[in-house]
């Protein structure tokens, strides 16, 4: 009987901590695909959120988003447009006048592909949606170390945003940000994805091209290095 | 000579702390008008940012924004649309199925006009724009106590968002959130506005109507009470 009560208690606690619905940010890239696969093992239902911000490869990313949502059988889907980031500019991803640099993974500088403060916009949208739908958590596939060095991919940023959520939503709203792959190496992310049968063949990472991946931008370079480190072949095509 | 050096040092510090450009969030209401008047006394140049989120009175608010920007002689203007908040819903301001309640200023509950986590979206946009333009501060006319009780109008929220900005922008970016009227009573805001010759006649506050203010929604009720407390007549017309 004691064991049985504990088990009920545990269920209730889990229910309180993370309501069975979670919001998952899905760009359509490899990291968000693996994050979604992890989120699915931890929740009863997922809502998939894609944010378009006027980036070069948006049409291809949206196709990847839809393919992933279909694969995971997701009914709750939201595509939000924040195209004002294109008006603001300041990034090679949103401003056609700034060239997407060829990758230099050894550089310590923040690359020109940095979209100023972008992940705050993504989390703000996810939080509003979570508050209205009653979701208990938000999954985001940020990667801190083994990535491009964007400031809004570091754990400190997510810790600060968590406090912003706690302070800026209703008293009875409880939403937890989850960053399950933030400390993984890119090759580990691939390995975790394979363990969970995440459909990496449906994802899109290239910053430049929408048909065949360029293989030379930061994002392609990180992806290719990760597959090489994992000793695996990338299922998508490269130029 | 000592005095002269101190003065140079002081100028340099001020220059570091707040570059001469500031971003000011301008909804078109009374609070943002007075905040802009304050911001003008503290900065060489202002950029005005208006965010449209699918609220009922958006067209009228945009007219107020333009009128205010013209009045203050603002060249840098950005109107950003986050109409996905309408898709997300959950507020009487963005969801036509939820009625805008008549004001009950004595109630302790969060009113139905609360737009979930809205001010985070506004600050995220302002921060991205500030980072790209090199602005040193963001002014927002949030009012904590003498207002509607929205969680994202409280000082704790702005303190948390400040840390999010510090963590999520480039290391050499320094942007300070300023909330100059957050602890003022609404009647004090009007008095401060009059001292600064803020054009309150150009502002719009009503949540419901776009031609003649309804006088009955939360926002009208707060405004009317504030003018009454200040012993002044509101320059706009009411039904």
What this model shows, in words?
The structure is a homodimer of 239-residue chains. Chain A is an alpha/beta fold and 239 residues long. Chain A has a single domain (2-230), classed as 3-Layer(aba) Sandwich (Rossmann fold), CATH 3.40.50.620. The first copy, chain A, is 42% helix and 10% strand. Chain A has a 5-stranded parallel sheet with strand order 3-2-1-4-5, with helices on both faces. In chain A, β4 (137-139), α6 (155-168) and β5 (176-178) form a beta-alpha-beta unit. Chain A is globular, with a radius of gyration of 18 Å. The model of chain A is unreliable at 1-18 (pLDDT under 50). The interface between A and B is large, with 45 and 45 residues.
CATH architecture of chain A: 3-Layer(aba) Sandwich
In what order do the strands lie side by side in the largest sheet of chain A?
A: 3-2-1-4-5
**Ends apart, CA distance between termini of chain A:** 63 Å
Mean pLDDT of chain A: 88
Largest interface comes to: A-B, 45 and 45 residues
Q: Which fold does the CATH topology of chain A refer to?
A: Rossmann fold
Could you name the CATH homologous superfamily of chain A?
HUPs
